[in-house]
Fold:
Amino acid sequence: MAGRGVRSWVVLAAVAAVAATGAWAQTRDTGRIEGTVADETGAVLPNVAVQVIQVETGQTRSLTTDERGRYRAVLLSAGTYTITAELSGFAKISREGVVLHVGESLSVDVTLQPAGVEEVLTVTGEAPIIETTRTTESTLLNRAAVENLPVNGRDFRDFALLAPGAGSSPGLRSPLRFNGQQGDYTGLTVDGADYTDPFFAEFSGSLETKNFAISQEAIQEFQVLTNGFEAEFGRSTGAIINVISKSGTNTFHGGIHEFWRNHALASNDAFGNEPIDFNQNQFGGYIGGPIAQDKAFFFFATDIQRRDAPLIVQFLRDVEGIGIPELGIANLGDLEGDIGQSVDLDTYFGKVDFALNQDHHVSFRVNYSKNDTVNFTGGQGQEVVSGSESNFEDFEDRVYSVYADLTSVLSDKAFNEFKFQVIDETRPRAAKGPGPEIQIFDTTGGGGIGRRFFLPIEGTTRRWQFTNNFSYLFGDHDLKMGVDYVYSPLIQNVFIGFASGVYLFPNLEAFQARQPLGFIQQVGFNQGVTEANTLAEPFKQHDLGVYFQDKWQPTSTLTLNLGLRYEAQYNDPSQAPVAGSFNSENADDTNNWAPRFGFAWDPTGSGKTVVRGGSGLYYGRTASIFFVTNGSGLKSGTVFAFPPPGNLVFPDLLPEVVTGPNDPNLPFPLGNPNITFTDPNFENPRVWQTTLGVEHEIMEETTVGATFSYSETDFLRRGGGFIDFDANLPPQGSSRTCGFAGDSDCVDSFGRYIWPPAPFGGPAGARPDPEVTKASVSSSEAESEYKSLTLWLRRGLTKNVQGFVNYTLSQSEGNADTQRDTEVFLGASDPLNPDVDFGTDDLDIRHRLNAQALFELPYEISFATLLTWRSGRSAAAYIGFDYNNDGNSGARGIFSDRPIGPDGQLVPRFPERQPNFFTFDIRLLKAFDLGDAGYIEGSFEVFNLFNNDNLESNQFFFADPAYLDLNLPGPRREIQLGIRYRF
Structure:
C-alpha cells in the first residue's frame, strides 16, 4: 500500500515544480474560438479587424489580430457563429456555420485574398472535429442528442452514463459513478454553478429518488469531464457533469409535448409476470424569444409527470394465517395486495439574458422543482414489494434555485465572469405506520412491517455560491484565475433514527417463535429523542476554492495546461457535546493543494492527430451527513443488543427518555452510551490521476482514439453513515483467551484481531474510555486504486449521421466502506487492519460498451438508438454473526465481518459477479411540416427493445442456500408514444 503513495508523491513533486508557471482550463459554461489570419502565401497578418458574431442572438465580439496574426475570442456562449475578417487591400471574408459547443476551444484559421472583383467572400463549414489544444478527456452530448435520443423518464443526466468509465449504483443516492469513485464525489454544475445537495451529496431535487430536477426542454447541451479536468474544476474526484441551459434568441421559438405509456404497452418481466395497471403522462413545453432584438431575450420551460402505478405487497414466503396479536394484526396475509403508488413531478425553468452594453452581459434564471410520492418505498419502478404499507412513507421534495451571472469584456485582453447562486431544498418525509419496525429477512427481503427506522425526516438545506473568474491574454499565454466560495447552512434536520425501535429476525420461523436476532433503539439521556436530534441553529459548512492556471502554446503544435488549485472545507462543531473523552469537534480540511498538468500535441501539424494527457491531484467534498450535528449523527443512547436480553420481550420498547444507563424504569441496564464522532484528523478524499491518450481523424467528421487512466485514492471515508467503526475497542493483548482454537494470541490466521464476547454482544474487556461503550468514528484511512483503458469512435454530424461508441476495460480495488445505498452492510472486517480487506470493491465493473447514434432519414424521419452493455457488478458476501466480537456492523445491525469459505480461506468482500447487463433503446420520429405554423412530430420509443432479463440478486448471506439467487428482474420492455408541436 505504501508503494502507491510513494509513486504518487514522486510524480506530483515534478508536477508541482512545473505548475509554478500557471494553467488554463476550458470554462464551465462557455467556449472559445481562436485562430490565425494569413494571406494566400501563408504570411500572418496583424491588425486585421475580426468579428465573431453569434447567429442566434446577433451578439458580436470585435477583435484585432496581434503581431502574429492571432485572434482569440473567449467566454463565448455555445451556438452557431459567423467569423468575419477585414483588412485594407484584401477582400472581406465571412466564415459561416461555425458551431461552438460547451467547453470547446475551436481553432478556426482564416485566409484573406487580395481585393478584386468580389468585395466579400463567404465560406461555410464547421471547424475541425479534433480540438488540438484540448487536454481534458470529455464526452459531449449536443443539442441534437439531448432532444432526440431516447431517454427513459426525461432525466437528461441518464445521458451521462454514455461516458467512458461511467456506472450507476443499484440504489438511489448519487447513482452516477465514474472512474472507480463513489457517487458522493460526482459533481453536477448547471451554467457553471454547483447543483449538488450539501447534506447528502446527491443532485439537488433528486434526493433518494430518480426524477428530472430541471426540464429537459431547458437543456441545450452538456459534457462529462472524466479525466484530467483543469484547476477551475474542483470538489470532485470522479467526474463533473457540466450542463448549460437554453436561452432565448432573436426568433420566437416554442413547443409543447406529451409522452404517454401504460401497462398495455409493456411486456412481461423476466419471471413471466404480466404488467399490472399503470399509467404515466409526461407533458410540458417551452417558449423563448427576443425582448429587444440583439439585446435582451427570455426563455421558459416546464416538464410535468403524473404517474399512477400499482404497488403490490407480496411477502417472499407464505404468511397466510400468521398473526401479530401484540400489534393487533390478525393475519399478515391481509396486508398483501395492491395499495397503489403515485409519483407527481413538476419543474419550471425561467431565464432572461440581456446586454447592458456591447461588453457586459447578464443572465438571470430561476428553477423550481417538486416531487410528491405517495407510498414511497425507496425503490425505483418497483411493482411488487415485500414490505407492508406501514413500512412505507409519503415523500416530498421542494427545490428553489436562483442564479445570476455577469460576463464582462474589460479589454481585448482582459475578461471577467461573476456568478451567484442560491439553492433552497426542503424534504419532509412522513411515516405511514407506528413502530416498532419488524425486519424478517427471509420474508421481507429487506422490507419490513411498521415504521421505518429512519422516519420521520424533516430536512431543509441551503447553498449560497459566489464565483469570480478573471482571464488575461498575452503573448503565448492565456492566464485565468478565480475564487469560488460556497456557504451551506443545514437549516433544519430532524433525522432521528431507530427512535421507534427495530426487531430483527433471521427468518419466518424465528419470528413465529418470537426469537429475534437483534434489537436496536435510540433513547435520549435526560431529554426526548426528537428534541435531541433537532438542530437548535443551522449547522454550517464553508467551502473555499482558489485557482490559477495558464494555457501556454510554446509552438503551434504543442499546448501546455499548467495549474494549481487550493481547496478548504470548514465544518461547524457539534451542537451537543459528545460523551467521554472523544473529539466533539468536526474536523476542518485546509491543506488541499492540487497541482495539475496537461498537454496536447499535434505531432504532424495537420490537425488530424492529437496526443493528450496529464496528471494531477483532485479532492472530494464530504457531505454534512457524515459529520456530527445535533441531528445527523449523535446517538447518545442507541442500544444495539444481539441477541436482545431475555427481559426485553417483543414488541416492548425502551422508554424514549431515560435518566441514565441504570434508570430503574429500564428492563435491563443499558450500559454507557454509544456515540458518534469525527476523527480530528479526518480529511477529504484525495485522488492522484494520470492519463495518456491519442485521437486520430480517419475520415470526414470521424475520429478514433484510446485513453489509459490510472488513479490512486487515499483518505477515503471509513465509518460514519450506516457503517460502524468502533474507536473504543479494548486494547490488544495476548494475556486474554479469545475462546477460539488456535487464537490464543487473539489474532486469527488471517491477521484479524478477535475480542472475547461480552454478555450482550460486542467485545469484552475494559474500554479505553470507560464513559462510553461504542464510539463510532468517521475516519479517513481507506484507499483505492483504479485502472482503465478506453477505446472509442466518434462521428460528428455529417451526411445526416452522428454518434459515438466507446468500450472501457477497467479494474477497481479498495478497502473503503461502500456507498450509503449500495452494500451498506459492509464496513471494515477488522478496523485495526484495513489492508486485510483490500481487493475488488463494489465499484468494479470490468467491461463497459456504450453507443448512441442519430440518423436523419428522408421524409422528415429520424431514428435514434442507445445501447449499453456491461459485465456484471461485483457481488458481496455477508456473514450473519460478529466473528471477531468487535460490535461493528452495517445497516440494520448486519455484521461486516467476512466469512471463511469451504477451502478454509477468507472470502473476499466481493467474491462473485452479478450477471451481465444489456439494454437497447430506440426512438423513431416523424415530422410533419405545417409551413409558417411550425411542425408536429410523432414519436415511437421502445426501452429495452429485446426485453432482456437483466436479472440480479440481493441475496448476499454467504452460507444461505439462496446466496446469489437471481430474484431481481431488470426493467421490462416498455413502449412510449409521444407528440410534439414546435414553431
